[in-house]
Design goal:
The complex is a heterodimer of chains A (256) and B (979). Chain A has 256 residues and is of the alpha/beta class. Chain A has one domain: Rossmann fold. Chain A contains seven helices and eleven strands. In chain A, helix 1 links the parallel strand 1 and strand 2. The N and C termini of chain A lie close together (7 Å). The mean pLDDT of chain A is 95. About 2% of the residues of chain B have low confidence. Chain B is built from 31 helices and 39 strands. The chains are: A alpha/beta (256), B alpha+beta (979). The interface between A and B is large, with 57 and 61 residues.
């Protein structure tokens, strides 16, 4: 079984790091929860890992905007180390706040192509406030959209919980969407009736063109056990495993 | 140095949600002339910045340019002309809302730190919310919007029109001057006056005791000494009423309590301990910051529930925010520090549809309070990454001026970490937030205009929390705990350093260097530093040999740790400021010197009036009304704003069933993802019964909390409970009498059920006075409000069940005894009926029944189970149907025979305790009935694959309820659907 090393990078306010590391470890990975400040002291430590995961939470309290400050730290202070990471054959996963961080930093949607970001370019897309204007927690049904994402291999549809205030994908112009379509970057879509936030094209997750970087708003690490499924007492499960675990297993097996 | 404003608005093509939200709220509160509201957020930044830097800050950091536009203007200093895009003058009234100087502004602090980190020369940052209104909005409506909707005078200031500001700087130097109080010469009148005006809130006997103490020392006290004593002896810190002497009489008995709590609530725990002997599973009760019981071989579990009522009445968001933040610090400060794993919250509000005209002066509208409180809890719990898994909301007009906000936290403590021990020589270390004027009594709220250079910083009793600071503290403390870097820990709650250090050093002694405490801004006096209740602070005892390692660990994650003194062996509390001694108190006098409080308590049962039931043949409308009543109806609007699944332990969620929207009885959480052992969290409360009899109200609350837990699978032999008494002014013997009667109920039922109390709290004086329109002073006391929180356990979470119906064909049974108990019921409420008696509890039968139901659930015989509470059998049936998306066909005929009651209204709506509605597969039916042999199990009918709930009356023929469950669900979901 492959045993890739996973860096679960936490910052002030990150709060899903334990269960995310647990999900990776359940699939055979060796994860380390490391504080951003420690990585800033020694950026070269990033080279020790095959997978970088930015878990959910409220990094820096979502002050200014979700992911804005953590994303800025990646962009301004870890640019070189992250460049090395992104251009080599490694994986990056951002969940919820982690997705927001990757978007704010400019690592998504285009991965290493546009990293570090050229100063003059303004982002073409963002994660902004849900249409209902509130933090909302509920389970949502999604389907994969034929992307090249390593994490979603073999997954057609999936049921996961979302819990966020700023998870609506908004774009600067229609060309952005067309480009994502062309480059198979739309990784996950809510079923239209389950779209919880008004996200354009029901997008729940995006990957870079290589398929090695994935960001998604719902939480796969909260559905790694069958007893986390909201209906598990209705249809008694035959396994202890939940559907979200597959994402983590895919990432681990990529290094097999 | 320049001062600029960066104003950010939604891009033109996008909706302005904040503007729409505010407009809707203004309308809802009667501001009918407010037709249009446009909103923007802005940042005020003071510093030396080039135009390029300003552009980078505005468009590259603060504004999200995909969805927002921004505008920069210079308010003061050079460069105005070159950058400022003058705002077109407008006839639309503009309102700016800013935090008062000195009030925590988390976003501004983050922005300032980040800009400095990015190399910008920034000195200060403040945030501002801006609102433009339609030009023809009336002045009265605008004023009301400003003061009742948009800004809260306790923490915010409003500025109409363009901001005119020169600087953001605040604070000034503090010139040290030792203040002593000439107590010795004071007569009784002066002592009382000092107590009142100095906001010491001590009674005369206490003031005289202090006077005599200092006379015996031959000196006067300093101000800080008086404050320290007042805090330590306060009701809030010492619970002197409930731990004091009480003489109680109720016409049938007279009881003389030496310590009311010890002889009622604690006595139950002691009796259970005696009975269980070596099998007692309580670890630490009523001594640490939270109650601790055993969980498994590796971990104990602890829980604490607190209230934050008065702050939430003044500033609902900040009050609830810091209420939850405070109770999370309790387990963090229990033993050597526990890891929080879930939160609970219970609120009591006035009905949200109260006409604005009926709002007394100085009271926020219940809808504003409710929304603020929910947001406050949401933002603290979610940000801390602690799931909020269980709660309740009660509505009663008497909560109008005095809402109740109960917040609870459950946390895990490794076995062996349950004890703390301070040793002389160890450092007193403050960790976390800085100290400011927050929460200092008597601090005058600043009325400074924005142009003001006042040193009167705001603060006062109302605060804003910073959950991220607390999360950072939690992260480092759990690491430091496991490295053994400290020997004791407690939270800084009410009373600040004074209370924390005073308690930790009670057995040793302590010397504090007040000038070492890190401050939010300059200008605090030594007394302010000592008594400030600034949030997110913990106090630890760190051996000098471990200090460097501890400090370095904190620093590595951006947490501030400061040694502010050391523990001694003198049993004296010594306070120094810049090398001068400003206070010296003996620990003995501080902790044991208070004269005992002696109170009278009288209970007189209200006369029993007969409850006359209207005669009906059909109860559809009653059922719809009860389902749509505020206490029963769906709380989904609130629940969906809470993260209830972070940490990955969720097993039974607050909302369950086919469409994830049925009302769960309790939450099941797995604290350790490697184990299948689980915790079950539930609560019980019914203030309506308290109006009839506080004893049976307490009994019913315990019964409800326990049966909620048992309904999802908790083992009734492993349920610990917590009490929270919120009462009116207990100086009145009859108010204290009703509390004593409730406490007696707590004692008797806890002993009978074997459910030990492990922690508790009281909040007395929950009354609100105002002058009515006739100029008369009116005082409204809250109803007696006892919350019982239950912390249960389940061996294997895979055997948990939920309340939604599962499968057509299954049998439905009612378990438990139905009596004619409609006093205080919701059937009486929706029909406007008075009288009757509160439901009782059968102390012998109930624990046997709980065990039997648990055995059946544990054996896998039960597919769904729901407890019967408000609205009785009819409501439970309806909820199970619509949660499961299935119909039911039920007859009351057998229940008539089993209960001996022949009134369908009683059979449908009685709120008798200790009852469950249970769904059992046909194949398991006889085994189920055998298991519960000898207990009252009444077959009611079956689950059917239909759209309808049909209940035949006790004649077995007439349909007394026949309704589509979809219609019932709609009635249940509609009232508080505020989305």
């Amino acid at each position: 079984m492959p045993t890739p090393r996973v860096l679960v990078l936490r910052a002030p306010g990150t709060n899903c790091d334990f269960e995310t590391a647990f999900a990776f470890d359940s699939c055979g990975a060796r994860s380390e929860r490391m504080h951003l400040f420690r990585l800033l002291e020694q950026p070269a430590r990033l080279d020790e890992f095959q997978i970088l995961c930015i878990p959910g939470g409220f990094s820096y309290g979502d002050d200014v905007g979700a992911g804005a400050i953590f994303g800025g730290q990646l962009e301004y202070r870890l640019g070189d180390a992250l460049h090395r990471f992104l251009i080599s054959d490694r994986l990056v996963l951002g969940i919820c706040n982690g997705f927001q961080v990757l978007m704010r930093a400019g690592i998504l949607p285009d991965g290493p192509e546009n990293w570090p970001r050229r100063a003059a370019t303004l982002p073409g897309a963002t994660l902004t406030w849900n249409d209902n204007g509130r933090y909302t927690a509920k389970w949502v049904r999604m389907r994969t959209a034929g992307s090249s994402s390593v994490f979603l291999k073999g997954i057609d549809d999936i049921y996961l919980p979302m819990a966020h205030g700023e998870g609506k994908i908004a774009i600067r112009d229609e060309q952005v969407l067309a480009r994502w379509h062309d480059r198979r970057q739309i990784a996950l879509q809510y079923l239209p009736e389950d779209n919880p936030n008004g996200s354009i094209a029901d997008i729940a997750g995006l990957c870079d063109p290589s398929g090695r970087v994935l960001g998604l708003m719902p939480h796969p690490e909260r559905h790694i056990f069958s007893t986390q499924h909201p209906h598990w007492t209705r249809n008694r499960p035959t396994t202890d495993e939940g559907a979200g675990l597959k994402l983590f297993r895919n990432a681990v097996e990529y290094f097999g | 140095m320049m001062l600029l404003e960066i104003e950010i608005q939604p891009a033109a093509r996008l909706p302005d949600r904040e503007g729409a939200r505010v407009q809707a709220l203004c309308q809802a509160l009667g501001g009918t002339s407010i037709a249009v509201v446009r909103a923007a957020r802005s940042f005020l930044i003071e510093g030396d910045l080039t135009p390029a830097a300003i552009d980078q800050i505005a468009t590259g950091f603060l504004a999200d340019t995909v969805v927002e536009t921004c505008e920069v203007r210079v308010l003061h200093g050079a460069g105005a002309a070159s950058i400022a895009a003058a705002t077109a003058p407008t006839s639309q009234p503009l309102l700016n809302v800013l935090y008062k100087p000195g009030v925590t502004d988390n976003v501004a602090d983050s922005v300032r730190r980040e800009l400095i980190e990015r190399g910008h020369a920034v000195k200060a940052v403040r945030t501002c919310q801006k609102y433009w209104f339609n030009a023809d909005a009336t002045e009265a409506d605008l004023k009301r919007a400003a003061t009742k909707v948009l800004a809260n005078d306790a923490i915010q200031q409003v500025v109409w029109g363009t901001l005119e500001l020169e600087t953001l700087s605040l604070g000034s130097d503090y010139d040290f001057r030792l203040v002593s109080v000439a107590l010795g010469a004071m007569g009784d009148d002066r002592l009382q006056q000092l107590s009142r005006q100095g906001q010491l809130y001590l009674n005369l006997a206490e003031m005289q005791t202090i006077q005599r103490h200092f006379a015996s020392l031959g000196r006067d006290p300093t101000d800080v000494e008086l404050e320290t004593i007042a805090q330590t002896w306060s009701e809030h810190c010492s619970h002197k009423t409930l731990r004091g002497r009480v003489k109680y009489s109720d016409g049938q008995q007279e009881i003389q309590f030496e310590n009311l709590l010890k002889e009622t609530v604690f006595a139950a725990t002691a009796e259970i301990h005696r009975r269980l002997g070596a099998d007692d599973w309580c670890v630490s009760v009523f001594q640490d910051n939270a109650g601790v019981v055993t969980f498994d071989a590796a971990q104990h579990v602890c829980m604490k529930v607190e209230t934050h009522n008065h702050p939430s009445a003044l500033e609902p968001y900040g009050g609830a925010n810091t209420g939850l933040g405070g109770v999370i610090r309790d387990p963090m400060g229990t033993g050597l520090g526990a890891k929080p794993i879930c939160n609970t919250d219970v609120f009591c509000f006035a009905p949200p549809d109260l006409p604005f005209e009926r709002l007394p002066a100085g009271v926020l509208h219940p809808r504003v309070i409710a929304k603020g409180v929910v947001s406050g809890v949401r933002d603290y719990g979610n940000r801390m990454g602690i799931p909020t898994v269980n709660g309740a909301i009660f509505f009663d007009e008497r909560y109008l001026g005095n809402p109740l906000v109960y917040c609870g936290n459950v946390a895990m403590l490794p076995v062996g970490m349950e004890k703390k021990q301070v040793s002389p020589g160890e450092l007193i270390v403050a960790v976390g937030g800085r100290t400011g004027r927050d929460g200092i009594h008597g601090a005058t709220f600043s009325s400074a205009e924005l142009t003001h250079e006042s040193e009167n910083l705001s603060g006062g009793a109302v605060q804003i929390g910073n959950a991220i600071t607390e999360k950072m503290v939690e992260d480092v403390l759990l690491q430091a705990r496991d490295l053994g870097l400290y020997t004791a820990i407690t939270d800084c709650g009410a009373g600040g350093f004074s209370s924390a250090v005073g308690e930790m050093g009670a057995e040793t002694g302590a010397e504090v260097w007040l000038d070492k405490a890190p401050l939010k801004y300059s200008g605090l006096s030594y007394t302010e530093i000592w008594i400030s209740e600034a949030q997110e602070r913990m106090v630890l005892a760190v051996p000098p040999a471990r200090w460097d390692e501890f400090e370095q660990l904190c620093r590595s994650e951006g947490v501030e740790a400061t040694a502010i003194g050391r523990f001694t062996d003198t049993r004296q509390l010594v306070l120094n400021y810049q090398g001068t001694e400003v206070g010296r108190l003996s620990m003995e006098f501080l902790h044991d010197g208070r004269p005992p409080v002696v109170r009278d308590a009288v209970y007189q049962a209200p006369p029993v009036r007969e409850l006359v039931l209207p005669h009906r043949t059909r109860y559809n409308d009653d059922l719809v009304k009860i389902l749509g009543s505020l206490n029963v109806c769906s709380k989904e609007w609130v629940i969906r704003q809470y993260d209830h699944e972070v940490q990955g332990g969720s097993v039974v969620k607050p909302l369950v069933g086919l469409a994830n929207d049925g009302p769960s009885d309790a939450a099941v959480v797995r604290p350790d993802l490697k184990s299948q052992r689980g915790l079950v969290v539930s609560n019980g409360m019914n203030p309506r019964y308290g109006d009839l009899d506080p004893y049976w109200m307490a009994a019913s609350a315990i019964d409800e909390a326990v049966r909620n837990g048992v309904a999802v699978g908790a083992d009734p032999d492993r349920i610990a409970i917590l009490d929270n008494f919120c009462w009116g002014n207990t100086d009145r013997p009859e108010t204290l009498g009703s509390l004593v009667r409730a406490a007696l109920g707590c004692r008797d039922v806890a002993i009978a059920y074997g459910t030990p109390f492990i922690s508790g709290k009281d909040s007395l004086n929950n009354e609100f006075s105002h002058v009515d329109q006739q100029g008369q002073k009116q005082t409204v006391a809250i109803p007696p409000s006892l919350l019982i929180s239950a912390l249960g356990q389940i061996d294997d979470v895979r055997r948990a069940i939920t309340m939604d119906l599962k499968e057509a064909g299954n049998l439905l049974f009612l378990v438990g005894v139905t009596r004619d108990e409609l006093g205080g019921s919701h059937y009486a409420l929706v029909n406007g009926l008075d009288g009757g008696t509160a439901p009782i509890v059968d102390l012998e039968l109930a624990p046997i029944l709980f065990r039997a139901v648990h055995l059946a659930i544990d054996a896998g015989l039960v597919r769904s189970c729901h407890d019967l509470s408000e609205g009785g059998l009819a409501v439970a049936l309806a909820e199970m149907c619509f949660a499961g998306g299935l119909g039911a066909e039920v007859s009351l005929q057998a229940l008539k025979a089993d209960s001996g009651l022949d009134d369908d209204a009683v059979l449908l709506f009685s709120e008798s305790n200790t009852r469950f509605l249970v769904e059992v597969p046909v194949a398991a039916g006889s085994e189920f009935q055998e298991l519960l042999d000898g207990l009252l199990v009444t077959p009611l009918g079956t689950v059917v694959a239909s759209e309808t709930l049909v209940v035949l009356g006790n004649d077995g023929q007439t349909a007394v309820i026949e309704s589509s469950w979809a219609r019932l669900k709609q009635a249940w979901q509609q009232p508080l659907d505020w989305s």
